[in-house]
Target: Peptide deformylase
Amino acid sequence: MLLDILTNPNPILRKKSHHVNRILDPEIQKFIEDLKETMLQKDGVGLAARQVGRDEHIFVINVDSKIQTLINAKFLLKSFKQTEFEEGCLSVPEIYGMVKRPQSVIIKYYTEQGQLKIRKINGLEARVIQHEYDHNRGILFIDKVYQYTTGEELVNAK
Model:
């Protein structure tokens, strides 16, 4: 089932998500499948529960055609080295901006099967995870942009 994606300035996007205690619950499993389907249908590389009005700390990503679910994610370490890259967001349509983020992260999370994972992640995958993680904290990429574009116009944000 396709879910409705909330767009800025909807105040629900600014709320923090809650820890998921019942990962294997059939309702949560169905929601995860709907979240993946919505992300793929909308051509996203990630989608957080917060973006569809849910308060569970869940997000899905699709990097290099590998779909992953991260539940109750927590960063254990972020690299000092940062990279700049243009980001966009399904919840902030038609706005793109340059954002600096740590190049690599070590993250702890649960899979949709309830397995605990601790991984070091680099590059685009690390960026997408940080972007989606921010959604679950009520933070949008536009909060971190130092330069953005709207269509053809380039604007300095700060």
Notes: The chain has a mean pLDDT of 94. Residues 31 and 49 are 9 Å apart (CA to CA). Helices lie at 26-41, 123-135.
